[in-house]
Design a protein that fits this description.
By secondary structure, the protein is mainly α. The chain is built from 35 helices and no strands. The protein has helices at residues 8-17, 21-33, 40-52, 56-65, 71-83, 87-96, 102-114, 118-127, 133-145, 149-158, 164-176, 180-189, 195-207, 211-220, 226-238, 242-251, 257-269, 273-282, 288-300, 304-313, 319-331, 335-344, 350-362, 366-375, 381-393, 397-406, 412-424, 428-440, 447-460, 463-475, 483-495, 499-506, 515-527, 531-544, 550-565. The longest helix has 16 residues, at 550-565. The radius of gyration is 32 Å and the shape is elongated.
Length: 570
């Protein structure tokens, strides 16, 4: 009896859930043995199954064996070809089909959109007898994913109704095409936020340094997934807020290897080596990212032997592993060791070339670094930026500017490196001009750019302009005010003799991150003969850095200057 072979319902369920070719063949045999091979319903199921598994020959054979294909048969074989990238075959089948339902039309529109042929997708869309919200979403996604946001906007505004998918496609489209203000404006217009929209904007805000907005979005999200938790953790870590990142990590309902790697990197990048090592040791699953983070952390903290040991124990080294060890040696002045690691590499990739060239430049061997740059087969923006930064850092500003001008495509790092080079080597006017050129080029200045321009103001004594830049960081650019910004502004004020204003600003800074600023104030007290302020500054610096005698030496120098100047003490 037919029904005694395999229960019909179980066979249907098995065909729909089949994920392997061997299992598919067995199920096909069971259909034949059960006597269902002439049942069109089962033929359609098998076409769909084989299409899902990429077995197009089998799918087409079954379709051709169906005596009277129905609209679902034609739709199933069309979808099979489209889902496997066979758009031309799908077009032939679609053209032959005597009947077409909404699924068939949608498959063809989606297939053309997926292959970048939006003109054909639009032509099919306009020929359709009816549209549903899924099809509108297909057109939106097709335009947005290829950067055609004007067309996406037109379709979005024309939609008779919009669901959360449509809103999220548009928000993500704006974000992916760097139209951040439009993404934010549409996000604020959404009738209701969901986890997808919040996660998208959280990533946008975090990647663009808008930490306050990122935090607001995270707190307002109706629900949070692993992605949003991890993105928030990373945003805090990038701001140096490791303790807050740890709090987020501890509150997470579940972790995955990406989350663990993010927290590991947060500790490693911010100098919390013991915490990073403890987390690494506890990880049950380690990826290359985990190992590479530890190699980088050891290198940045001068633990060369541990960096080498971690590299030696790494089960599967990749380009980042080799480059991390090269950078670890180079950062600690062991350029010969770095070169030996480079020579040992099985293959020199662009990552490795960039690491050795950057390390050579960091150690002051700019000409040797330029020779390496000249030998690189595939230079990318990292290569150019390494050389610009290396030249600028070593005072070779003319050569750095020449490379900057020749660079095929400048990045934020390119601009920041040049502004920093001019600022730190006494060419403050040139730094300010380049900073303004950034804005004219449409480059969105980040926190580092404002640190550099404040350093430039400090060097040339532009107090008023310094204040303008300082106040615009949060007011006009929506960036976070950091301890580095405050420290630079203290230096601007102190060098200009506005010691009272500088001390007032210091009082607003986090005490544990203000030693550099107190040092700047103390140095300025000598220049401006202010023993009273110098005494307080020395006391604060000594509290922050009790192991250093700097504060007492500087205070003695201030006293000496006062005495030589013949000035009385109040």
């Amino acid at each position: 009896m037919v029904s005694s072979v395999v229960p019909r319902s179980k066979l249907i369920e098995s065909i729909r859930s089949c994920k392997e070719g061997v299992e598919a063949k067995k199920l096909h045999d069971q259909v034949l043995a059960s006597g269902f091979s002439q049942v069109r319903f089962f033929g359609n199921l098998l076409i769909h199954m084989y299409g899902r598994l990429g077995e197009l020959v089998q799918a087409r054979s079954i379709f051709d064996s169906i005596r009277d294909p129905c609209v679902y048969s034609w739709g199933s074989i069309t979808s099979a070809y489209i889902s496997n990238g066979q758009l031309q075959e799908a077009r032939k089948i679609f053209a032959r089909a005597p009947l077409k339902n909404l699924v068939s039309w949608t498959s063809m529109v989606q297939g053309n959109a997926r292959h970048g042929d939006m003109e054909e997708a639009k032509r099919l869309f306009e020929r359709m007898p009816e549209w549903d919200i899924v099809l509108w979403g297909v057109m939106l996604a097709g335009y947005a994913q290829r950067g055609y946001m004007d067309q996406a906007e037109f379709f979005f505004e024309e939609m008779p109704e919009r669901n959360s998918v449509a809103w999220n496609i548009m928000v993500a489209g704006y974000a992916q095409n760097d139209l951040l203000e439009k993404a934010k404006a549409l996000f604020d217009r959404m009738p209701e936020w969901d986890v997808v929209s919040c996660s998208t904007m959280l990533q946008v805000f975090a990647e663009n340094g808008q930490f306050v907005e990122a935090k607001r979005t995270f707190d307002s999200s109706p629900e949070r997934n692993v992605f949003s938790w991890t993105e928030m953790l990373g945003a805090l870590a990038n701001q140096g807020k490791v303790d807050e990142a740890q709090e987020v990590f501890d509150r997470m309902p579940q972790w995955n290897v990406v989350t663990l790697n993010s927290m590991l990197a947060a500790n490693a990048q911010n100098g919390y080596l013991d915490q990073a090592k403890a987390m690494f040791d506890r990880m049950q699953e380690r990826t290359a990212v985990s190992w590479n983070s530890m190699i980088t952390a050891y290198g940045q903290n001068g633990c060369i032997d541990m960096a080498r040991e971690t590299f030696d124990n790494l089960p599967g080294r990749n380009d980042a592993s080799w480059s991390g060890l090269i950078a670890a040696f180079a950062q600690n002045g062991l350029l010969d060791e770095a070169n030996r690691v480079f020579e040992r590499m099985p293959q020199w990739t662009s990552i490795a070339w960039n690491a050795i060239a950057a390390g050579t430049a960091q150690n002051g061997r700019v000409e040797a670094a330029m020779d390496l740059f000249g030998k690189m087969a595939g230079k990318n923006s990292v290569s150019w930026n390494s050389m610009i930064a290396g030249n600028a850092h070593n005072g070779q500003l003319e050569q750095a500017k020449s490379m900057f001008d020749k660079m095929p495509q400048r990045t934020m790092l390119s601009w920041n490196s040049m502004v920093a080079g001019f600022a730190h080597f006494g060419q403050g006017r040139e730094a300010l001009e380049l900073f303004h050129a950034m804005a004219l080029e449409g480059i969105k200045q980040d926190e580092i750019a404002f640190v550099n321009v404040l350093v430039a103001c400090s060097r040339i004594g532009c107090v008023d302009r310094g204040w303008q830049y300082f106040e615009s960081i949060t007011r006009d650019h929506g960036l976070n005010l950091t301890a580095d910004h405050c420290g630079c502004m203290v230096d601007v004020l102190a060098r200009a003799g506005k010691l009272e204003d500088a001390e007032e600003m210091l009082g607003k800074m986090p005490r544990t991150r203000s030693e550099g600023a107190w040092g700047s104030l103390l140095g300025a007290c000598r220049t401006h003969w202010d023993l009273s302020t110098a005494s307080r500054a020395a006391q604060e610096f000594a509290w922050l850095k009790p192991e250093r005698a700097f504060s007492y030496i500087m205070l003695a120098n201030v006293c000496s200057s006062e005495s030589k100047g013949g000035r009385g003490f109040a």
